[in-house]
Amino acid sequence: MPTVTVANASVSRDDAMEAVRQQLGGDYQVKPGGNADVFSVQRGTLSGAKVHIRPDAGATTFHVHGTGIIIGRIINEFGIARKVASAIGKTSLGQS
After folding, report:
1. Has residue 96 been placed in a domain?
2. CA distance 50 to 32
3. In sequence order, which residues have a C-beta less than 8 Å from that of residue 20 and are 6 or more positions away?
4. Rounded mean pLDDT of the chain?
5. CATH number (domain holding residue 36)
6. Residue 24 in domain
7. Residue 30 is assigned to a structural domain of this protein
8. Which range of residues forms the domain containing residue 25?
9. Residues 69-73: what's their mean pLDDT?
10. DSSP helix/strand/coil, 50
11. How far is 46 from 36, CA to CA, in rounded Å?
12. At what angle do helices 80-90 and 71-78 cross, to 10 degrees?
């Protein structure tokens, strides 16, 4: 599970989603999840990742998981989940 920490404790889900959209482009669908600290990223039917947002002391941590069933989940952990984590790391979210 890729994890990224940014030096900003007040990153909202909407800000994170928009930043990921800008980094990844139109080939990826970024949608809100079931609660205020989760969103998902998909590229096609079988390629997806779920992002969990956790505020820490002075920072925000993003845990990115590949989605799918067994083999698909493993492939997505090494594919799209890493790509999403890399995109989060390249954003300006760490600047307050």
Report:
1. no
2. 10
3. 28, 30, 39, 41, 51, 84, 87, 88, 91
4. 92
5. 3.30.310.80
6. yes
7. yes
8. 3-90
9. 91
10. strand
11. 24
12. 30
Number of domains the chain is built from: 1
Give the pLDDT confidence score for residue 1 in this predicted structure.
Answer: 79
Amino acid 93: pLDDT: 81
pLDDT of residue 96: 54
In a domain, 95, yes or no: no
CA atoms 14, 20, 21, 23: torsion sign: positive
DSSP state of 33: -
- Tally of residues, the chain: 96
What is the per-residue pLDDT across 20-63, written as a single tens digit (0 to 9) for each?
999 999 999 999 998 999 999 999 889 999 999 999 888 999 99
CA distance 28 to 43: 5
Do 61 and 4 contact (CB within 8 A), yes or no?
yes
Token pair 């990921």: residue: 20
Residue 87, pLDDT > 90, answer yes
Type of residue at 45 = T
